[in-house]
Amino acid sequence: MKILIADDDQQILRALRILLTARGYEVIVASTGAEALSRAVEQHPDLVMLDLGMPELNGIEVIEGLRGWSAVPILVVSGRTDSADKVDALDAGADDYVTKPFAADELLARIRALTRRQPAAADQPLVTFGDITVDLAAHLVTRLTGDDIATVRLTPTEWNILEVLVRNPRRLVTRQTLLTEVWGPQYTNDTGYLRLYLAQLRKKLEPVPSRPRHLLTEPGMGYRFVPDPD
What is the pLDDT of residues 174-195, one digit of tens each? Predict the structure, then answer.
């Protein structure tokens, strides 16, 4: 099981890495909020632990960024004890909150409780629309043509955009969310990237690219993935 730990305190990162590695967890670390989002997109952890006071993007912004495309359990581990901070974190989408300093046994129990709540492979489904199947676990896109199944080759960037969209069926994904998750927070104004890559995805995946049925543009806001009707 992979755990992403995001904290700008190197001593905390080192201590948590030792503690969790000794318990058999695979640990990924990040020391800024932007790095945490980038690692989450690249590594798809099974749990995210994060501090609220980080540079570049604070913990609340990281939670909101994650919740734009993922249901991964989020455990806040913070020195902030004010109830308002806890409420803000939980309202943003965190699943639990532990205050520093913490007991190792309590932290491990919280981790076990959060990961037990997750259905097996819930974050890595097969998504099918039209003649296309997206295998999120295998990072594979295929097209069914008659009795033949062919692989649809996507660039890494095309895959990252598609993955964010299909993990949020029928939900609006803002341009800012896509740009942050795929390229990083410094690219939130570069909407030309999205238009280019969405056009390429439609050419590869839509029956009629000029009249998209599944990868829709919401003018002035973002994009929406619409699967086939049930």
Answer: 888 888 877 776 666 777 778 8
Range 2-116: architecture per CATH = 3-Layer(aba) Sandwich (3.40)
Read off the DSSP letter of residue 187.
Answer: G
Q: What is the pLDDT of residues 83-136, one digit of tens each?
A: 788 888 888 888 889 888 888 888 998 898 887 755 444 455 789 999 999 988
3-state secondary structure of 219: coil
Q: Is 64 helix (H, G, I), strand (E, B) or coil?
A: helix
SS3 (DSSP) at 222: strand
Contacts of 32 (CB under 8 A, 6+ apart): 6, 8, 54, 55, 56, 57
- Residue 151's CB is within 10 A of a number of other CB atoms, namely 9
pTM higher than the cut 0.90: no
The class that CATH gives domain 126-225 is mainly alpha
